[in-house]
Amino acid sequence: MDLRQIPAGTLDRVEVIRGLPPVRYGDLTQGAIIVDTRVGAFAPEARVQYDALTTEATALGGWDLSPAHGITANLDYARTRTEPGVTTNSAGRLAGQLRHAARLGRSADGAGARLTLDSRADVCRLVDDRPENVNTQPGFSSRSRDAGLRLSERAQLQLGPRSTLSVTASVSREWQTSFAEAALARGAMPFTNRTTPGLSEGWYVLGDYTSQLTVDGNPWLAYGRVEAVAPASWLGLRHHLRAGAEFRREWNTGGGYQFDIEYPPQVEFNGVNGYDRPRRQLRDRHHHSSDVLGMYHLRALFRRGRHRPAIQERRVGLSRVDVGHLDAVGRFLHADERPEGR
Length: 342
Prior knowledge:
Layout: E1 11-17, E2 32-37, E3 42-50, E4 54-66, E5 69-81, E6 90-104, E7 115-130, E8 141-158, E9 164-191, E10 203-217, E11 219-234, E12 237-252, E13 256-258, E14 289-302, E15 310-323, E16 326-339
Antiparallel strand pairs: 1-2, 3-4, 4-5, 5-6, 6-7, 7-8, 8-9, 9-10, 9-11, 10-13, 11-12, 12-14, 14-15, 15-16
């Protein structure tokens, strides 16, 4: 998820995991950021921030509809000048979230709800404008317009005093449109506009030209996870067991990289990789997709007289990525054993 879509006023807790994160967060190797937003009843509030760089306005509040149901809503607008006094570049964000929490039934020990539901709907609009600056970057300008919608649901069922079953599901859709224009120069090089195999009469192109690049992306992301937690006691040791499975699918239905081939956005062309990919790896019209299915289990051993349990993690899964007409299938196995807190 793009962190620009989360207003700071809605944050409740942020956890940063450096290095190799626990296996329950997926097949990650470069850390993870866990973000929780505010939920529950709290007094409505409005905030306005203004300085030489940024203007931001936030409105949020939480209400209890009944003892078992509550909603939280927020709306945030922000606009900033990225380089005041040097350029007229600016960026803006409009983000909103509606969250509903439900606590149904009573758990076996009577300490909480038997079923907890957390439903969220997030919308976001991002704008980035970089008009031409004749003093620093003559001939260059760009703009981007992104919008996103995300629906998610978390459900937790209390099976016993310390046993739970959790289900997480989400689907998100984004609309990404970017345009960039640049003044470039190239030496003499042969050129043909033929795009199919065969012979064609070509000509030489050289000198200054203006490239215009449009990037259209419509990425989708579907995610699901099922996780069970249960205590156990074997051979005088207390065990904390966690097992789960997750599924993630990503695909893009946008037009991708679009430009006049006689006036490419790069002077240099790599015959293997082509031109540089745009941000977020927007894919072309072949509608590439990637799928990941993984299963994991975690076991914590609480030995007598020890305050820090030893944690053993195992993850095994199957991943599939479509790259053009090539399907690559790979299996991954991740194992980690370390004391908790290190």
